[in-house]
Amino acid sequence: MTRRKVKLAYIVNDSARKTTYKKRKKGLLKKVDELSTLCGIEACAIIYSSFEPQPVVWPSPPGVQKALERLKTMPELEQSKKMVNQETFTRQMILKAKDQVMKQRKENREKEMNLHMYRCINAGKVQLNMNMNDRNDLAWVIDQNLKEVDRALEKMNKTVIHQGQSSVLVGESSIQPQMAQAPALAVAKTEEMTMVNDVHGLVTDNSDAMQRQWYMNLINDNYGNEIVPLFGDANLQNGLFWPHP
Predict the structure, then answer these.
(1) How far apart are CA 183 and CA 171, in angstroms?
(2) What CA–CA distance (Å, rounded) separates 7 from 20?
(3) How far apart are CA 197 and CA 191, in angstroms?
(4) Residue 226 CB neighbours (<10 A)
(5) Which of 150, 141, 151 is nearest to 121 (CA)?
(6) Who contacts 33 (Cβ-Cβ below 8 Å, separation ≥6)?
(7) Which residue stretches of 76-131 are H helix?
């Protein structure tokens, strides 16, 4: 059975509030004790409550006095460096949550545009109901896929060159078999490159300009005379990085 999430709000009922206080106080002091023992640090706790006439101190009054004196010997800036109140802590948690939400939105948007890219490739055209933000995001995703294909091709080319150089070091008796295998290896690599191109549905020409122009022609053919900014345009506010209105 999963634990029910506790609502962080003032408990109005006196009896329930007192019960919660006793339970939480015991847990807090236990955690402070464990932290001090496991990490070998000086720690203290002082709890004021309307339920008890005297404040609760841990580990003892002398121990608390020793920890406080050590704190006072530190420079004032160092004393407050990592101190937070309830408001500051809440603000930090809100900022952290906002960052996580923004990161998740970006990931979701990228996945959405990847899916849309493959749909456009299968259909052979860009859907007409896309707005400028969608088209900019789609352009960014296609550009990233082109770069990944380029990196994969470059890596395969380096592998072929490295294998070709290694064959030179082989003895004379094995030079002919290696030379016979080289064309077959090159053909296999070429076929593998073609398969990568087919999967991505992209033209893997060595010219980045031709790759980008292919996409621009595809979009502009579907949108008439409306001009879409090219990749790398400094004025292009990509939806993946710029907030949409």
Answers:
(1) 19
(2) 13
(3) 10
(4) 10
(5) 141
(6) 58, 59
(7) 76-79, 86-123
Compute the distance between CA of residue 161 and CA of residue 155 in angstroms, rounded to an integer: 10
Q: Which residues pair with 56 in a beta bridge?
A: 47
For residue 216, the surrounding DSSP H or E stretch is helix 208-223
Pairing of strands 56-58, 45-47: antiparallel
Tell me the three state secondary structure of residue 172. Answer: helix
At 84, list the tokens.
Answer: 């937070």
- The structure tokens listed for 135 are 């088209």
Q: What contacts 230, CB < 8 A, 6 or more positions away?
A: 212, 216
pLDDT in tens, the chain (245 residues): 566 777 878 999 999 999 999 999 999 999 999 999 999 999 999 999 999 999 999 999 999 999 999 988 988 888 878 777 888 888 888 999 999 999 999 999 888 888 888 888 888 777 667 788 888 888 888 888 889 899 999 989 888 887 777 665 555 445 455 444 555 555 555 555 554 454 444 444 444 555 555 555 555 555 444 444 444 444 444 455 444 44
Residue 58, φ and ψ in degrees, nearest 5: -140, 140
Instruction: Copy the structure tokens of residue 76.
Output: 């004032």
- Give the three-class secondary structure for 213: helix
CA distance 163 to 237: 44
Please give the Cα distance from 39 to 215 (Å, whole number): 59
Could you tell me if 5 and 33 are in contact, meaning their C-beta atoms sit under 8 angstroms apart? Answer: no
pTM: 0.42
Nearest to 137 by CA among 209, 240, 207: 240
Place of tokens 């709000």: 9
